[in-house]
């Protein structure tokens, strides 16, 4: 996948759907479409937007947390993290 082209979520592709969603959100963060502190849409809204199950969205958000790109606050939502300084 090219870094400058927006990734597409394709359920028929030979890649996990949750990883495709996580990669798409990560791309939006890198492209500046999602700014630090911005709140991600809710699970249901994201599932509808991407045409995937809520379980796939939950796993994608978990992947984004593991990458350090988002932070989830219970009863508040999931927010784009501040970028980490390069080590």
Automatic annotation (TrEMBL):
SMART domains: HTH_GNTR
Lineage of the organism: Bacteria, Bacillati, Actinomycetota, Actinomycetes, Kitasatosporales
Single annotated GO MF: DNA-binding transcription factor activity
Domain HTH gntR-type per the UniProt entry, residue ranges: 15-83
InterPro entries referenced in this protein's UniProt entry, alphabetically: Bact_HTH_transcr_reg (IPR050679), Tscrpt_reg_HTH_GntR (IPR000524), WH-like_DNA-bd_sf (IPR036388), WH_DNA-bd_sf (IPR036390)
Pfam families attached to this UniProt entry: GntR (PF00392)
Top-rank taxon, per record: Bacteria
Entry keywords, A to Z: DNA-binding, Transcription, Transcription regulation
GO BP, sorted A to Z: negative regulation of DNA-templated transcription
Protein name: Winged helix-turn-helix domain-containing protein
